[in-house]
Amino acid sequence: MIVLALLASIAAAGVALTMLFLAHGRPEDDRGGARADMVRYFGLSAIAALLCGAMNVMETAWDSVAAAAAGNATNIMAVGLLWAGVRRLNGRRAIGAISTGAGGILLFGLTFLVPLDDATLLKTAGLVVFSALCALECARPPVGQLGGARLLSWTLSLYAVYNLARLAVVAAFGLAPLLRQGPVSAEATAAVSAVAITLVSVSAVWIGRQLDDDPAPGTRAHDRGALRRETSRLLAEHSIVRATLVRVPELDLIRAAHSGERADTMLRTVADAASDALTDVVTGMPARDTVFAVAPVTTDATDVEESLRRAFARRMPSIDYDDVPDLSFEHHLLRDVDDLSWLMESRRSRHRLGQPRND
């Protein structure tokens, strides 16, 4: 019976994860805004719930303390990440994810140090706290004003009450009621968790469909979408366009010697210089530390580089920078938007893998 209930919990978590990503609504990497934040946090919560169910099955099958520790930690994190996600949507300080991670790590370690039954009670107490916090956060605006927020709040409130009832039963009658068939047994708890996951996933999709999924201006996701749209416009007028990738080789030194803000200002200045130097140009920063400038092929690539260097140098006094950093260039001819998408993704992958930024 316990294994069937745990498998039901795993299935519910899988459904929740699938529904969340189906709710996202944007292809590939043009994701951003409040909906992306919700999918990020709630999706991680669904993954934690999946792992929790799997660890509980392993614990039941092999009586593994390590599996029990991982199951306790991921159970806490599944609920805590919901709280962190709602706090993010409400624009509140990002202590939710930190608290959740600390709670999961603490409970993982304590499971090896205290009797397993005591660790289970600590986990149950943590579920009460995080569920209650998330239920209260769901009542705050702006999330509290969205359809689905009330369902999410009531689901987590009842889940907190159920776990509080389990603690009350243990306080009154000891651990025996948790070990035999009944409303507070392990089987019943797994079934309640499966129902809670299903209701949370429904409310999350309901809320997510009302959230804005447009990336915020100034983010790389926003620039990727804007570059695709504007490049499509240029290609409708020209059979081929040129993408010029511009980097500042000493940008890491500027970031270390001054600040990250100064480095960002330097990149924005490169983009402004490209707008000065090139005709009908579209600029953006879809990859880290790289400015993309897409424009019709009207001049030689060498002339583009010289014009951009001169425009960049003219803008140095406006940002109070005495020196004129060197620039490095790459040029690529684009015949369709897919070429641009591949180019942006290749640069993102290169930076994730830690490969050199200068070719």
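Second entry:
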Amino acid sequence: MATTALQRDAERLALYTGLPYQSTHQIAGAIRRRAAVIPRPSPQQELLERWLLRRVAWPMYDPVRPWGITWVRPEADGLTVHFEGDYLAGELAGLLPPRFTADGLFYGIPGARFFPASKKGVEMILPGTSARIRLAGIGPKAWKAAWKKEQHEAAKEGDVLCHLGSPRSWTHRELLYVAGAGIGAVPRARRAEASAWLASALLRRVGLWSAAGIALSNTSWTNPENGGEQWIIEHIHQPTPDSLHHDELVGLLTDPEWGMRVKVTDRWCSCARQGEMCLVKLRSTQDEAGELELRFARRDTPRSVQAWGGELYAAKTLAAVIAPTRLRLRPESAS
């Protein structure tokens, strides 16, 4: 049982990020509350993290954990994202590097550049800024093979991979793309930047979703919203006796010290009527642009096994996290 502030911080950091307790104990011990344990990064770092979450938001393959992320390590000047394994190398190599198709369509993260893979992972940066994300959990051989295959496919399709011609700086076409008008005539860059704080704060607390029941499927997408973005997260899960209720997860997200600097603005709960979907909307407590809509869809065991298959369902069950009772929080709106 946690008896000291250090142990409680370590437990809480493990719950929010998915990091092993041994690692969070070292991190919390080094910080000793002299700074935020989950710090808010620079606007450029937030933007890069927003783009990463946007690109992995709808996985091509069904991962074991939400978005295929095992844990994250948030720092003031960077983020490490540990993915489930080498099987995701091909998906990430196809989703993240910026490219233009032969038809002029853009895919990937604008400006993203990648250093050669190492045992520590793949370093992704935004040229001209200090923003960086380390993609861990994928071996160098797997990444190199996926990278080579992606270049081969691009050449065959007539796609232009931006990093090949400009490995350390933005291309002119990328700059034109982000400056271009998106939906509602708001430049893409301005809309993404306005709500990047929201996506970054979500990604830095990705571990919470593994504690909200057996995570069967997590998908997310964005809609234009008053010059920013509305982020929608659909968490299809199977509740268990020890899992976080959605009100408890929202309580952790709205916690003044550890949460996302958000407040509940609307809530619709069907739990008492044995419904299959509950919904919560949140906005910034600091009047920042953007809205977060959380959809909690419940499934029972027979339907879960039938839909996801026995082997994958078993792996998802093992990946579910039990939150310590003393860390559970309830928002005022749930009372």
